[in-house]
Design a protein that fits this description.
The protein is built from 29 helices and 17 strands. The chain has about 650 residues and is of the alpha+beta class.
């Protein structure tokens, strides 16, 4: 819910402009506060306590502490009772007010007591400081600018750059991250002077001394000594108990709620539990499919689950030209380049769901905490083969290329091609690096453009010390003796999860005034998952083993153990039907070429190779066209309405 903005001086006009820039995050109400030290603004999407008592900024009894808040605190009723016993007086039924009194009682450590997701700013008038916090997992974004004596923060970057004194210069490291990964996990955003508050962190800004202190208040503990020796039966019971409580808490709402349903085990588990917890009310569910696409279409499976649990089900079928029509608006909402194709159906599905609900539950996160991705199989297998000499490992990859059926190859490696040339090179690089440089091997599996390809593509590479992203990842995640799989999962949860997987539902849902909630990412469930031995998550070639066993109590086995159907966006159809001319324009007169960001001949070569290896080069082209649109919108100030694909 909501959007927050603020800065450390008095300017009523600017704070209003910043709040208006993110009106989509909160169309129901607005509130402002100004004094000579701060200006604060808030856009409200009313979810809990719909009365005017929930308007932000919201104050304590003494009028010396106020908050602007984006998110939900799901254990607010328990905390409220606890605080009332300690003498705190409440005037509303909001979770927002609980944060204010928790800060009064516990100071900055109050964040450790919250179950939920949030980004908030507290103004402590007596101490003359701003206290900012982002939730443990990074479900809610929070950005800031800090230069000289100037400090600005907001839920979205577009609000910060309403201050026209901020230069919109591109950060080369962030751009390298995006070209490699299709998203940017760095603390530094694509704009040189704008930073993101990373997940599980707080920032305290001294309004007198103009100094900021960053603190990490929560981190995933993946140490081997945390692994428990409990039986599978005990783990199943405890998992299901935690999951049920997580879903129950995320059903707290004073507005209609529903769920996104794909038909897979993750979203089906959420819907099954919602149905159990609300037996007298049919859950509203929403599914998306693509017109004429038989590969990535999960509507059949979603329909089966909807019938099984008697939900009020809505199918949304998307046509390719609709996707392309919406793409410029989507890029604007994202703030930074993010070329995950799933943002498109997420945006359209959220717009349709808003006609019925304001809160949506999703199945996101289960693949991370329970090792559900097929790439985890591949990475774990490679790690087990690292004892082979490098030349032998390369022979293994060559043999695998010949023996593996195309469908299986495409399943374990999503960028495979009909020719096998590109995937063979990636296989070979992976097996060569897995013992010496695990992060580099990982990047060979997940990157859109690997390091060699970026050397050919990126003209700004001379501004960087290195194109290689592996050094920092190795230091952070692989320089220890902990289980390899848990290291990979932790790395994904601290990078891919908050800045790609969770950024999609937050910004795409908020674009349509919908709040997305993610039961699998309750921090208690995450902490528990890291006490489970990796072999209970990935058992042989069975992903999410212990989760599947636990969910047998709420889902039919035919649903749990049916062949995994990855959500595949039909990029081929989009490119063939609607984007070919766009790519040609990109090659001949694109801004990212004219501005010297990418090499024209390399882009042309990618386009020429596309027809022989669609999956591989299609994703690269998709990243480039998203970067081009972002550049036109945010650097050249062309409005999305003027951009037609």
């Amino acid at each position: 819910m909501c959007g927050i903005v603020g800065f450390n001086w008095d300017n009523k006009n600017l704070v209003k402009k910043m709040a208006d820039a993110i009106l989509h995050r909160g169309p129901d109400d607005s509130g402002y506060f100004n004094d000579k030290f701060v200006s604060l603004g808030h856009r409200r999407l009313s979810i809990i306590d719909l009365s005017k008592n929930g308007r932000n900024p919201l104050w304590n009894e003494n009028g010396d502490i106020c908050i602007i808040f984006n998110g939900e605190i799901f254990n607010y009723t328990e905390l409220k009772e606890e605080l009332e016993k300690k003498g705190h007086d409440f005037f509303s039924n909001t979770d927002t007010e609980v944060i204010v009194h928790s800060y009064e009682e516990y100071g900055e450590k109050c964040v450790e007591r919250f179950i939920g997701f949030f980004a908030f700013a507290i103004y402590d008038i007596l101490k003359k400081r701003l206290f900012l916090a982002r939730d443990r997992i990074g479900k809610k974004p929070l950005y800031y600018y800090m230069k000289g004596n100037k400090f600005i923060f907001a839920s979205e970057i577009k609000a910060i750059i309403e201050d026209k004194e901020i230069k919109k210069e591109i950060n080369s490291e962030a751009l390298n991250n995006f070209i490699c990964l299709r998203y940017n996990p760095s603390e530094r955003t694509i704009f040189n002077d704008i930073l993101r508050l990373k997940s599980g962190m707080t920032l305290t800004y001294d309004l007198i001394r103009h100094k900021a202190v960053l603190k990490k208040y929560w981190e995933i503990d993946n140490r081997n000594k945390k692994i428990n020796n409990k039986s599978a039966e005990t783990i199943k019971n405890e998992l299901l108990e935690l999951f049920e409580d997580s879903v129950k808490k995320r059903m707290i709402s004073d507005v209609p709620l529903g769920a996104y349903l794909s038909g897979g085990i993750d979203s089906s588990s959420v819907v099954a539990m919602m149905s159990k917890l609300s037996p007298d009310e049919n859950v509203k569910t929403f599914s998306v499919g693509f017109d004429g696409d038989m590969i990535g279409n999960e509507l059949e499976y979603a329909s089966e689950i909807a019938k099984l649990f008697g939900t009020q089900h809505k199918e949304i079928v998307i046509k390719s030209h609709h996707c392309m029509k919406e793409l410029p608006k989507i890029v604007w909402h994202l703030d930074e380049p993010l070329s995950d194709p799933a943002v498109v159906p997420n945006y359209i599905m959220s717009r349709e769901a808003k006609k019925k609900v304001t809160v949506i539950l999703t199945g996101d996160g289960a693949d991370e905490i329970f090792a559900g991705y097929d790439q985890y199989k591949f990475l774990s297998l490679g790690n087990k083969l690292r004892w082979l000499p490098k030349f032998a490992r390369r022979d293994v990859s060559r043999l695998a290329m010949k023996m593996l059926p195309y469908r299986l190859l495409n399943k374990i490696y999503p960028y495979s091609s009909s020719t096998g040339k590109e995937i063979f090179n990636r296989f070979g690089n992976f097996f060569s690096e897995i013992d010496d440089n695990k992060a580099k091997a990982y990047l060979e599996v997940v990157s859109i453009f690997n390091e060699e390809e970026r050397k050919e593509l990126l003209l700004f590479r001379k501004k960087l010390k290195s194109l290689d992203l592996s050094n920092n990842l190795n230091k952070a995640y692989f320089n220890n003796k902990n289980y390899f799989l848990n290291n990979v999962i932790k790395m994904d949860m601290e990078n891919y999860l908050p800045e790609d997987l969770l950024m999609k539902p937050d910004k795409m849902c908020m674009a349509s005034h919908i709040e997305a909630r993610v039961p699998f990412l309750d921090h208690r469930l995450i902490e528990y998952s890291f006490t489970i031995h990796p072999d209970m998550k990935l058992k042989g070639m069975t992903t999410k083993y212990i989760m599947k066993k636990a969910m047998e109590r709420i889902l039919p086995k035919r649903i749990i153990y049916r062949k995994k159907q990855p959500f595949v966006v039909p990029l081929d159809v989009w490119i063939e039907k609607d984007l070919k001319s766009t790519f040609k324009d990109l090659i001949s007169k694109g801004s990212i070429i004219k501005q010297g960001l990418v090499d024209k001949n390399t882009v042309k070569d990618i386009f020429d190779k596309y027809s022989s290896s669609r999956m591989y080069y299609g994703r690269q082209l998709w990243s480039l066209v998203n970067l081009e649109l972002w550049h036109k919108i945010y650097i050249e100030n062309i409005t999305p309405k003027k951009l037609r694909l």
